[in-house]
Each structure stands twice: as C-alpha cells, then as structure tokens.
Input
Amino acid sequence: MKNIADHLFDILENSVKAGANKVLVKFSFNKKKFFCQIIDSGPGIESADVIDPFVTSRQTRRVGLGLPLLKKTADDTQGYLKINRLNKKGGTNLEFLINMSHIDAKPFGDLTRVFIDALIAWPQMNLKLMTQNNSTFNTIIDSEKIKEDLGEEALYSSQIQNYIYKTIKKELITKGIDDHFSIEGKK
Amino acid sequence: MKNLEELKMMREKVKKDLQLRSGKFRVKIVIGMGSCGIAAGAREVMSEFLDLIEKNKKMDIAVTASGCYGFCAQEPMIHVYIEDNPPVIYRNVDPNAAKEIFTNHILNNKVVEKYLFSKGKK
Output
C-alpha cells in the first residue's frame, strides 16, 4: 500500500465483502494526527484476532494482509489500530490514528478519489462521510440521500461525480488534509 | 448537505446522459480490488478506465470491482466481459496496459496477448 488512501479503500472493500450495505466514515485531523473511524452495518467480526495475518474469513487463501498492513502503517507512526464489534447484532467499528508528522508516515494519497471509486465500484453500498468540526461531526456527503433525491443512476454521471469530488476535496483542504503529508500552517 | 439543491439542478442537465447510462451495458470491466490488487495499483487502473470511458464517450461500458481472485502475484487483474464474447482475464495491468486493452480489445475486439492471463469458453 503506497498511501493511506489505498488502506482506506481496502477497509471499505472488507466491509462490502462482509455484506455491509451502510458504511460511515469519520475523519478528524488535529495537531497533525489523522484519526479515522469506519463503522459498517456488516455481520461484525468473530474475534479480535483479525489483525493476525493468519486469521481470515476468506476461502481462497489462509492469510489476509489488509488489516495487518494497516496496523503496521499506524504503529510505525506511534499511532494505533483498534477494531471491535459494535453490538450483539453485528456491525464493525474500526479506528486508526496516524501521526502525520512522524518520519515514517505514509502520504495521504487522494482520499477524495477513494469515495468516488467506492461509489462507482459498489453502487449498492451507502456511504456517508463526516468530518470533525470542533466537537461535532458534520456530514459532507451521504450517498443514500443523493440516491433518494436524485435517483440511483445519478451517481453514474461523471458531472455529478466531479461535483461530489470537488465538494469533498474542498472540505479536506480546509481541514489541512492534502494528497501528501498535510498542509503546513494548518493545525 | 446544503449542496443537494445544486446537485438537483445538475441532475436536470445530465438527464440525457443518464438515460443512455441506464440502458444495457455492452461491456463490463471487473477490476480485482482485494488488498493485493490495491497494493499493486488497481486503483490507478480503475481511474484510467473511467477516464478512457469519459474521453471516448462510451456510455455502454460498466466498471465494477471484485475481491481477490487468488492469484495475487499477477495483480492488478481485470476481467473483460463483452456481450456475446467469451470472458477474458488480463494480468499485471497498469495504466498503460489499460490504454492498450481499451483501444484494442474493448473498442476493436482484439485480445491483447501481452497481458493475457486466460480466455474463457463462449
């Protein structure tokens, strides 16, 4: 994985493959610490051992590297990766923190592109993105709402994709998140 | 979501495009996007295909993603399904390969042997 965007896409893929139809992504960026929380409506994980590469639900191979790689990316910068079941019914809650000022941090990559790619690749999934504003989280996009109001095929239009892209990008830039290691001067 | 109003206005503009879009797809491109695919650069390949579709104004091509096929060393892999043709699987696809596959295979129905992994039966 070259950047954090790749990791994020990988986690979203995990959620989709686990059968989740709703995924909520929350970002916050304070004092050069990038925090990301991903909550999905899937069946939830069986055990907390998923970070072990030899624990996987897949059938094609006996190893799974997605989460172990993310854990390494986070640990390398003195951050963390936490993953747990949301409640008895299911749902997975995954959180990671990456310290972007650390010398071993990976660049962000195009985080905005992840959302557009996800909307195209898995049209059945409802994706919601929130970013932190002081102590509250504000919704930036909600694909369920867009589909409801504009019709399901609206997301196939490249003009609408571009519009969503610009909206997310602008929001991330105001938070100090760019494609590299954050914008200097922003907190 | 204060931008929803703007989006609604935009929808009116792109209605025509969407009508073409909602018809049947002639071609389906499936990109392997497991951890292995992503690490090998599958997202760049997907962006490239979306760009090419946009540039060539081909509304009858769908791009979707799948998980790992179990041949991680050959990633990024893509499946190309063209109507009435056997499915074709390509391996080690980078953005340049994507261009070649798009022009030769998807537009002109000539399989690109250089990146061929396997061909299905009709």
